[in-house]
């Protein structure tokens, strides 16, 4: 007579840890192998549903099949007995499934005493998510969905990282969401969706922010980074590929207060720093003359900023990019690497090289200046 299998002799917490690393369907099947395992899958702390390769994934994106799938997900979450730390859901949904999805979020809210990570990729421009206040949440990622903050929304007091990609949200809700997340150390906002009549005007004042990535498109009218004293890495890029004459203005107030910024990546047409600005569309020459002077007392420029990348491909005016390059070569006193990205065949390549050679000689000869061609694997060092 065979003795008990060795796996059944493992402590329950070890078995639960093993099951938590398996896809849900495999975890349930594995639990059947031993009598002592039968219900241990219900103590798993992570659920990722609907992602590519997930055997429990939805096979349809509308109608009874999709609704039945949501019901199964609801049943799985209801069956969990232990603390749920991580929940991720990626699926296509239709408008008529809004109530089912909201019911699932409300269930997560009831079980959320330990929930620290929530990732929702709904892939629907018609379904509206009323985002509950998950008080224990530390990481939130939302993509391909429309978000509305419900009445009485209290924010996320413990939230440390926030990622919003291809999200439709009102200007008031976006700013309130950011404002009530004072403990953010990382923020990513890319490809926002807004109506032409109500573009986004975003203000960031985050005392603990260390990483910032913001993509500017036609839905964004203005970005103001008012204060971010702990910021270490910032990437603010123009994601608009059009000939529109409207460009968002970007205010980098954080440069006057931040003392830790070491990496900066920029691509936009209107830059405001203190009382001065570069605007490729208005008074460009005058503004560039004002900006291309030494700015003393800017801590990150004096002490920490070592790497800057300027992407000229998405800039409306060639000289705007060159002005940004010259400004940082002139003022970033500990700069080690300046990267200038461009596309070959743009008609400005010879002029760009000439301008960079001048900038290298007249400003910061210690810094390495690198030109990176976006279409070809070409790097030019100065």
From TrEMBL:
<dbReference type="Pfam" id="PF08387">
    <property type="entry name" value="FBD"/>
</dbReference>
<dbReference type="Pfam" id="PF24758">
    <property type="entry name" value="LRR_At5g56370"/>
</dbReference>
<dbReference type="InterPro" id="IPR053781">
    <property type="entry name" value="F-box_AtFBL13-like"/>
</dbReference>
<dbReference type="InterPro" id="IPR055411">
    <property type="entry name" value="LRR_FXL15/At3g58940/PEG3-like"/>
</dbReference>
<dbReference type="InterPro" id="IPR032675">
    <property type="entry name" value="LRR_dom_sf"/>
</dbReference>
<dbReference type="Pfam" id="PF00646">
    <property type="entry name" value="F-box"/>
</dbReference>
<feature type="domain" description="F-box">
    <location>
        <begin position="4"/>
        <end position="40"/>
    </location>
</feature>
<dbReference type="InterPro" id="IPR006566">
    <property type="entry name" value="FBD"/>
</dbReference>
<dbReference type="InterPro" id="IPR036047">
    <property type="entry name" value="F-box-like_dom_sf"/>
</dbReference>
<protein>
    <recommendedName>
        <fullName>F-box domain-containing protein</fullName>
    </recommendedName>
</protein>
<dbReference type="InterPro" id="IPR001810">
    <property type="entry name" value="F-box_dom"/>
</dbReference>
């Amino acid at each position: 007579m065979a003795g008990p299998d060795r796996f059944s002799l493992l402590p329950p917490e070890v078995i639960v840890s093993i099951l938590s690393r398996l896809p849900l369907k495999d975890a349930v099947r594995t639990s059947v192998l031993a009598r002592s395992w039968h219900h241990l899958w219900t103590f798993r702390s992570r659920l990722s549903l609907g992602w590519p390769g997930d055997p429990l994934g939805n096979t349809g994106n509308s109608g009874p099949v999709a609704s039945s799938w949501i019901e199964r997900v609801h049943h799985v979450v209801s069956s969990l007995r232990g603390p749920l730390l991580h929940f991720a859901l990626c699926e296509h949904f239709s408008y008529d499934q809004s109530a089912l999805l909201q019911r699932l979020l409300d269930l997560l809210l009831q079980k959320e005493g330990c929930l620290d990570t929530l990732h929702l990729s709904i892939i629907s421009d018609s379904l509206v998510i009323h985002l509950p206040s998950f008080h224990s949440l530390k990481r939130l990622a939302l993509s391909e969905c429309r978000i509305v903050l419900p009445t009485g929304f209290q924010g996320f007091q413990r939230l440390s990282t926030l990622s919003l990609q291809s999200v439709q949200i009102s200007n008031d809700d976006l700013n309130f969401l950011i404002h009530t997340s004072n403990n953010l150390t990382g923020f990513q906002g890319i490809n926002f969706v807004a109506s032409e009549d109500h573009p986004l005007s975003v203000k960031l004042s985050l005392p603990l922010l260390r990483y910032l990535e913001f993509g500017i498109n036609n839905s964004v009218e203005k970005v103001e980074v008012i204060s971010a004293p702990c910021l270490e890495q910032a990437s603010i890029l123009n994601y608009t590929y059009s000939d529109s004459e409207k460009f968002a203005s970007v205010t980098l107030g954080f440069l006057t207060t931040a003392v830790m910024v070491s990496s900066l990546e920029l691509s936009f047409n209107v830059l405001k720093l203190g009382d001065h600005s570069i605007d490729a569309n208005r008074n460009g020459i005058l503004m560039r003359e004002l900006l291309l002077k030494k700015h003393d007392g800017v801590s990150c420029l004096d002490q920490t900023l070592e790497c800057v990348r300027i992407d000229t491909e998405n800039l409306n005016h060639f000289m705007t990019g060159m002005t940004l390059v010259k400004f940082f070569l002139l003022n970033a006193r500990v700069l080690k690497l300046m990267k200038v990205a461009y596309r070959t065949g743009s008609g400005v390549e010879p002029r760009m090289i000439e301008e960079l050679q001048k900038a290298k000689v007249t400003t910061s000869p210690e810094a390495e200046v690198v030109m990176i061609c976006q279409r070809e694997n070409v790097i030019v060092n100065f």
